[in-house]
Amino acid sequence: MASCLVFINYLCALCVSSEAGGEDTDVASYEAILEMLNPQSPIPLYHQLADLLLSRIRSGDYPDGSKIPSETELARTYGIGRPTARQATDQLVQKRLLVRKRGSGTYVRQTKKDVDLFSFAGTIASFHKQGITLTTRILEKIRLKAVRNDTENPFANGKAYVFSRLSLVEGTPVLVEDFYLHEALFPGIDRIDMADQSLSRIVNEQYYMRPEGGKQNFRIGHVSGRRAIQLEVSEQTPILMVKRFLDFPQAEKGIYSELFCRTDRFVFSQILGESADG
Hints:
- The chain has a 6-stranded antiparallel beta sheet with strand order 4-5-6-9-8-7. A two-stranded antiparallel ribbon has the order 1-2. A two-stranded parallel ribbon has the order 3-10.
- It is built from 8 helices and 10 strands.
- The N and C termini lie far apart (62 Å).
- The chain is elongated.
- The protein is an alpha+beta fold.
């Protein structure tokens, strides 16, 4: 009943303001009507409110991470009881669109951005494509070194140019990459400063090569010791591990890399038919 009275009174007020304000007021008034609940509708009020909140989330009125009005405020605004407002927010919490924070309120859940980590553009460009600023830190400078015995590493028991890189978003580690580059394909690459450099660009612009194919192995595992410290995770945190082999016209498996990816902030994906070289 309260909702019905609010709706009727609101319509009367809009009629008065329309006569005074003209066409611009009519447009604004129509938009405001669309945000009112209809107590005469067969659709439950809590469902109407949930749909309204959802439309505001999708339109960006309530962006990721923002706080929505409290249940008391929603009840007062839409002339409904607080239990009805609670039902509406419960529905969006169950759909993982909202999240409740004890003692703070209800917030729009921050969605994980989908980063095509394995495109030809490389790691840095893949993050930038999503509007994400990525910074990198060299953990081990590139140098020619003997590679330990590893059945999956194509350079095992031989030599390769090796370096390790940490990638961060807003100061938080998200990815560690260990690279192994073919000694004959990339002479002199150890003289290049790799800090905040795209390896794919270096390979393309300075060595005039692009990968023509390759393969990747994916698994979920855990890291410990130095690697866990670098990623700032515990030994129990699941990590996406990728082993990647890139083929070039001049040599198969010219670049091999091992990636350790945190998945608590980003979803790492791959567009079928593409691969990457960092």
